[in-house]
Amino acid sequence: MITCEEFFAEFADYLENQVSPEVRQELDLHLSQCRVCHVLYDSSRKTIKIVSESNSFELPQKVFDPIIDRVMSKLRTDRR
Amino acid sequence: MADTVSMGFRGKVGVKQELDPLAVFQEDLGFIPNLLRAQSALPYLIAAQAKLEEALCLRDGAISRIRKERILLSVAADRQDNYCIALGTEVLSSLGEREAQIDSLLSDYRNASLSAPDLGLLEFCLKLSRNGPSVRRQDIEELRVQGFGDETIVEAVAITALALYRCTLSVALGPEPDFKPQSLPPRKVPAPRDGTHAAVGSDGQRNTKGRGPYVAAPYLSPNTFPPFAVVQQTHGFIPNFFRAQTLRPDLLQAELDAVGSILLPEDVLTRVQKESILLVVSAANLNSYCVAVHCNMLRGLGLSAEEADQIAVDHHQSHLSKADMALLDFAVKLGTRFSEFSPEDTAKLQALGFTEEQILESAAVTALNNFANTVQMGLGIEPDFDVPFAFEKSSANPPAAAPTLMPREGIVHLVATFQDADSELVAQAQGGDLEAFEQLVRRHTQLIYRALIAILGDAADAQDAMQDTLLSAFKHIGGFQGRSKFSTWLVSIARNAALQRLRERRNTESLDPMDSENDCNFRPRQIATWQENPEQSHSKAEIRRLVERGLLELAPKYRIVVILRDIEQLSTEDVARQLGLSVPAVKTRLLRGRLMLREWLSPHLTASSKGAA
Question: What is the pTM of this model?
Answer without folding.
Answer: 0.81
